[in-house]
Design goal:
Distance between the termini: 49 Å
Strand order of the largest sheet: 3-2-14-13-12-11-10-9
Number of helices: 17
Helix content: 25-40%
Structural class: alpha+beta
Number of strands: 14
Largest sheet: 8 strands, antiparallel
Shape: globular
Length: about 475
Amino acid sequence: MRKYKITFILLIFAEIHGLAQSPKIYSENTLLNDTSLIKTNVVGANPRNNKSENPEFEGWTFSATEALRVHKDYTLKDFRLVNSNTKYVWLHLNEFMPVATVARKGAVSPLLYTPTPEIGKVIVTNTPDSLNLEEYIRRSRLQAIIVVYKGKIVYERYPRMRQEDKHLYFSVTKTLAGTAIALLEDDGKIKLDDTVGKYIPELNVSSWGGIKLRDVLNMASGMTPQFDDPGARTDSNNLYFQFESAMGIQIKTLATDKGVWQALNKMSLLKQPGISFEYGGHNTVILSMIVERITGLSFSDFISNRIWNNIGAEADGYFGLSPEGIVVSSASMNSSLRDLARYGLLFTPSWGAVSHSKVVSDVIIKKIQHVGIDSQRFDKGAFGKRMINELGERPNHNAYQWDFVMGDGDFFKAGINGQGLYISPKKDLVIACFSHGDYTPGVSVAFLSRAIAKSFDKMSDKR
């Protein structure tokens, strides 16, 4: 009998040791079915993390009647507006335009949850009221925020959406096109000094054909019109308006039926390429088209194969499509907040928390940090000036579709109405958020994210 007891004890010890040595990434079935793996510090397994406990959440869910009302009332005029329609649309874009799935594959990467409450006390506004993060969340339209430090979630709130909801990234989407180009460059399949026309001969009839990929990648193509042009959002005769109409994210005009290709070919060179940061989603769409030409894959499949399949995503993401079926790579990616953070982790030393392989090389990260439109050219356009004003400090440059890169190597991408993704490779930090509108003019998620990142200089000393 004593012999059996010893054997039983040894078997238990072996089982515990095996669990301790198991890989970081588990299959969905294992997470769902094996209750021995469910810990309160594994995000996704803790029921308290699956719903908001805050009163602000009330009024941000929709009955069937309310959803039908939005389907009846919503038009493309609403797409970027903060109103009762877009409360619903930005969480259910696949009900309002055709989409392409960005499929997940394989094991889900659980993220450990080690709460750091002092993050909520960080001052995140540059206004006289000097709000800390917790107060900002109460007063603003922030829908969700996550802070991941050294591969672990240290702060996470869902005041105005559910954890599993898939939210529209808006322009944070652009980083996927920039990353795709960087991956192909790393593969030796593309050179940034090549011209657009080399890969897309159809654009050789316009000024696009002779522009270097480097300038398109860094928002310095010099092509008109620009996103910040007067009338770009309101004047149906404006070429940028017509381009977005053809892409299916602006109301229809006579240009819509003529398609995206004609809209691009109607554009002309406003200034010499490479001399200034001039923001525009047409640059991003050119990049995703080039990815498709080089690889023979749809842009959504490329992102799925090279990124989404390699982050242990909890769910599929999706892109919106134009009426012609062209991916709206400038503004239409949708996923859960945690999956956005998982993507961000690929740019940090903790990439192994979500992936078995290093997807984004150190070479790519160094290029983002050191190569782009430098500070002397950064504020030549309206968007760069606005970034400097919002931050209260001057970025080093912009690069690879990221809005700004700071002197410490941190980089950030904003999406209109309060979306954001902030990466600090040095601090091993990712900050991501979704919103339904900015708190007030001049108070941006860029400043908020930068403030949180800076706070880690002091907090890291305590860790």
